[in-house]
Amino acid sequence: MKDVLKIIDLPEATYHYHRSRSDSEDPDHEWKTRILALFEKHKGRYGYRRIHSALKAQGHVINHKKVQRLMLDLKLKCVKFIRKSRYRSYKGKVGTIAKNRLNRRFNTAYALQKITTDVTEFKCAGEEKLYLSPLMDLYNGEIIGMSMSKRPTLEFVMESFANALPVIEQAAYRTTVHSDQGWHYHHPSWVNALKQNRIYQSMSRKATCADNAAMENFSSLLKQEMYYGEEQVSYDKLKQRIERYVHYYNNERIKRKLAGMSPVQYRTHASQLAA
C-alpha cells in the first residue's frame, strides 16, 4: 500500500484520514465489522443464516435479510459446498442383516438413545489414504467417539466403538447404534460387542443412503468445510486437521436446529435445565 500511495503522490496520513472518515459515515460499519469477524473466525464456513444466528447468540438484534445484504456488500460467500464421491464398504452379504430400528426416525429427545456411525475415506498426499470412523449422538449431533487409520480394518472400527463406549454407558435409556451394511458391521466382533453391552443394532437397507442420512450429512459437512478445495497433506497432518475440526464442530459450530448452540452447548444447557 505504501508503494501505491507513493506512486499516486498521496500522503499516508491523508489516506488513513479519508478511510476512517468513510468508515464513520457508513451507518453499517459496526455491523460489517462484526459480520466480517465471525466469517473469518469460522473460516468461511458460515453463510448468512448461521452468521445471523451467531449474532443473535451474542445478544445483537438484526434482521437476517440485512445480514444477507451486508454480506453481499462485503462479498462474503460461503464457498465450501461441493459434492464428491464417498467410500463404500459394502462387499455383499457377509453375515446377518440387522433390523432397521431407526427407519429414518433420526430425532430423539434423549441423549445417547440413538447413535449412528459410518466409515469415510480421505486421500492424503502421495498414495496414502485416511479412514475415519465416527460415532454421532442423534440427540444433538455430537461426535462422541472416533478413530482414524491408514486402512479400513476391523480393528480401527472396533477402536472407535471402544472410544465411545464410556460415553454410551452414561445413557439413561437403552442405546441403538445404526450403521449401513458395511462388512465391519456384519462381523461377529462388532455384533457381539453391541450385544455384550446391551446395545441394539440397527442397519440401513442395501444401497439406501437416506437410511443413514444423518451420518452421511456429517461426513459431507466435514469434507466440505475442511477438506475439499484444500491442498492434500500427509496422513499425520490430515489427522490433526480432522481432530481440530471435530473439536470445533462439537464445541463451537452452532446449529440452527439446536437453538443457535453447538452440540456441547446444547447438551450442557439441557442438563442444567433438567437439574
Could you give a short description of this structure?
This protein has 275 residues and is α/β, with parallel strands linked by helices. It has eleven helices and six strands. The protein has two domains: 1-74, no CATH class; 114-274, 2-Layer Sandwich (Nucleotidyltransferase, domain 5).
- Based on CA atoms alone, the radius of gyration comes out at 23 Å
What's the count of strands? 6
Structural class: alpha/beta
Helices and strands, in order, run as HHHHHEEEEHEHHEHHH
What is the CATH architecture annotation of the largest domain?
2-Layer Sandwich
The profile of the biggest β sheet is:
6 strands, mixed
Terminus-to-terminus distance: 57 Å
By CATH, the superfamily of the largest domain comes out as: Ribonuclease H-like superfamily/Ribonuclease H
Task: Name the CATH class of the largest domain.
Answer: Alpha Beta
Unreliable spans: none
Function: Involved in the transposition of the insertion sequence.
Domain Integrase catalytic: 106-271
Protein name: Transposase InsO family protein
InterPro entries: HTH-like_dom (IPR025948), Integrase_cat-core (IPR001584), RNaseH-like_sf (IPR012337), RNaseH_sf (IPR036397), Transpos_IS3 (IPR048020), Transposase_IS3/IS150/IS904 (IPR050900)
